[in-house]
Structure formats: C-alpha cells, structure tokens
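[09:14] KT: can someone run the structure on this one? pasting the chain below
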Amino acid sequence: MIATLPAADDPRTLLGLSDEALVERIQRQTLRFFWEGAERASALAPDRREREPGPLDDDDRVAIGGSGFGVMALIVAVERGWLAREVVIERLDRMLALLVKAERYHGAFPHFVHGRNGATSNFSDLDDGGDLVETALLFQGLLCVRAYFDRDDPREASLRSRITGLWESVEWDWYTQGRDVLYWHWSPRHGWAIDHPIHGWNECLIAYVLATAAPRHGIDARAYHRGFASGRAFRNGNAYHGIELPLGQAYGGPLFFSHYSFCGLDPRGLRDRYADYWDLCVRHVGINREHCIVNPNGFAGYGADCWGLTASDDPAGYEPHAPDHDNGTISPTAALSSLPYAPAEAMQAARGMLERHGGNVWGRYGFVDAFNESKQWFARTYLAIDQGPIVVMTENHRSGLLWNLFMRVPEVQEGLRRLGFSSPHLEQAAP
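[09:31] RB: done, structure tokens below
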C-alpha cells in the first residue's frame, strides 16, 4: 500500500505547511490517482476518475498517454520512499502484461484500450487504430522505467526486456506514409482517413525525438525539419503582454505544450536551430499567467494567485483552453505543472486556489481537474493527462529525476544528436 497522509477535513489547513511540505503533499495526494485509482485488471491509468467513488471507478478504459505519465509518477514514489520498490515492480509487471498483449497497429498503441483484455476502445468513429502521439507519451514513461529499474535482478530484467521489445516494434517510419512528416493516426479499417500530419509547435516534439531515436523503424531527421518545423503555427516572434514568443501559435496555446514533451525531455540548455527550449517554455508560461492577471474578459477569480489555462474539463465538456480560447476555466495542472519554469508563481497559485476554494478544488486525488468561478462550476473529475504532469514536473523541479533518467537513455541521446539538438546531457555523454 501507499504510505498515506491523512486527508485534511479542511484543505485550507494545508496553507500552514512550508512550500516544500506543501509541494510534497500535493505530489503524494495526486499520486493516489495512479495507485488507488488505477484500472483494476491492468493497473494502468484510467482516462478519468470522479471526486467520490462512482461509476467511473468501474470503467476499464485506460489511457495510453496517461499511463506513460503514470509510470513516471510511480518512479517518483519509489525514489521518494512513498512506495516500496518491490511493490512498484509488481505493479509494473501487471501493466506490461496488458501492454504486451494489447492491440497495436504497426507497433503503435491506440488512444484507449480496455484494461481487462487489451482490446481497442475507439476514441471516435475514425480514430479506432494507432495513435502515434499517445504512443510516444507512453514510451517517454516506459524508457524512464527501463533506465530506473536497472538492477541485476530477474524481475527488473524482465521489465527492461519487455519494454525494449515493445519499443523496438513501433514502426515510426510507417506513420510517415513515405513523406517527410509524421502522421498522428492510422486505422486498419479507415486507413489514413483522419489525415492529421503532425506539424508544430505543440506537444508533439516527443514524437519526433522518439521516432528519430528508434533503433528499428526510425525516421530521417528531414521529417522533423520539413514536417514538424514547417507548420504554420511553428515560428512566431511576436510579443504578447510584452513577452516575445519565439515559437508557437498566438499567445502560445494551452500550457500542456510546455509540459507533455518535457516530462522527460530536459529543456534546461536544450537548443536547436529553432529555439532555446527552456527560454521558450518560460516565456509561454509567462504569457499564460499574464493573460490571467490582465484578465481582458473579466472572468471571476483570475489573478496572480489563480491562473493557468490548458486542456481540461469545463462546464460544457472538454476544451484546450488558452489565452485566445478562454471561457473562464482555470485548470490547476496548468500552474502546478509549470513549477520548474515559474516556481514562486506556481506556489502562489497553489496557495491561492486552496485559500479561495478549499474543498471545492481539493479531494481524494489532489486538485480537481478544473473550475470556473464565473459559472460557479467545479469539476467532479480527475484526468490522467492532467494529474500525471503535476507529479512528474514537480519532481523535475525538485530533483530533475525524470529529466536525468530520460536524457541518459542512449537511443534518446542519439535521436537528439541526429536532429541537431545540443544539451548539457549530450555533452556529458560525449566520448
């Protein structure tokens, strides 16, 4: 079992903790989503859970990308001493047992699978096959697992072997259709009907790094430069709220652009011909926060102690919220997962949300997915793709754990070199 902390009757009591103690409490409470809230048969990450036990707890649909964040969160739990190494190995063994038998499409996983048998759970009518970005987010996590569980032990060796087998089976080159760009989806029934080439700037940098790094079925670096870097929303150079943005759409887009790929990729000192990625992420976060402070739409609650727009649930469903697509919905993961880039500002938001909203925003798995004070709406849900980055990016701020694990993977280092990146990690690894 997870070493638990007592759930406070009034979350405002958390405000008496030091910043370091509060950060750890948020991490541990959020980790419960992936431990206590895991899908029962496979132990993989559910797409979502409810604030109180309910029908979603019996849903066997698991999120492939969310499971990538989930296994990274389990590494944090071992390293922090919240869970025993042996217990987590048993959990990972269950996860891999399902992943090995799950339906795949030229090696790529679908967006969702059923935890009881590994069958595809369709994301939409056409999206019933391989999802390359979800697959990349999964392997970002699994390669960290392979790096962390490195002991000369049969159980750990088995984990590493199965991860390597899955990793080497992904046909990244298939997902180019022979062109200089990756395509997000392929279906055995509908082929390339979705027709979604992956152009940047967005959350998909990790897909190009892994596709170029792949030991088998890898792609040429041309796809990154001619595909990802050729998108209409790739280069920017304009200023928003006085902050110049090198890459990305107007105002930078939702904050998960600066979180998902950088759960593993260390942006500190990471550069290529297009950007300094630490600088890019810091500027992106700064624009997003400043928009909430300026609050041009006059939404209730916005300010320096309540900011953060990203993809999340909202009163009407689910939306990728951003400064230019803002309906008054604040997503706690947006600020909390930005802790590495804006530590004081993220802590101000964490304390502000707790002080202002208390139990409306805090529950069994930490901060709820989102809230909209203007509409007096508070989410009753938690999402894997929002809870995972809170644990992982917080740990990267505290210790750099996942950054160091991922960036020391030999294939990742080779992929970054092929793409023309420089990084202190590559300099340290140079012969």
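[09:33] KT: thanks! Residues 361 and 368 are 5 Å apart (CA to CA).
[09:34] RB: yep, looked fine to me
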